[in-house]
Design goal:
The protein is α+β, with helices and mostly antiparallel strands. It is built from four helices and six strands. β2 and β3 form a beta hairpin. It is elongated, with a radius of gyration of 14 Å.
């Protein structure tokens, strides 16, 4: 089933200079495996195409059921230089949770229970 990431994961974001740092945490190990295949750097870059100018790098943190995405050149110079409303990327986690993913129905039932 197609769902928004917020149904199967949590997220947190901040800044690293001119890059936004977005952590995505799956709710179960099985969901982590699904997200491993679907939450690719390419898909995340496409999702943030209006914000991220420098590409996306993904780091896997399997012991925490998490991924760390670095959205390069996404903050207009960073907190002290940018004229953007969110120069620290705090809203990027909420933005990522709006991305669609395909989750098997049985895993979705498990998460919703």
């Amino acid at each position: 089933m197609k769902v928004k990431l917020y149904e199967v994961a949590q997220a947190r974001s901040g800044d690293k200079g001119d890059a936004s740092n977005v952590g995505l945490i799956a709710r179960t190990p099985a969901i982590w495996e699904v997200l491993r295949a679907q939450a690719t750097p390419e898909r995340v870059a496409d999702h943030f195409r209006g914000v991220c100018r420098g590409g996306v790098e993904r780091f896997e943190v399997p012991n925490l059921l998490a991924f760390n995405f670095m959205l390069k050149d996404s903050l207009g110079g960073g907190g002290t230089e940018s004229l953007k409303t969110d120069a620290q990327g705090k809203t990027h986690a909420q933005g990522l949770l709006q991305m669609d993913v395909e989750i098997p129905e049985e895993l979705l039932r498990e998460v919703r229970a």
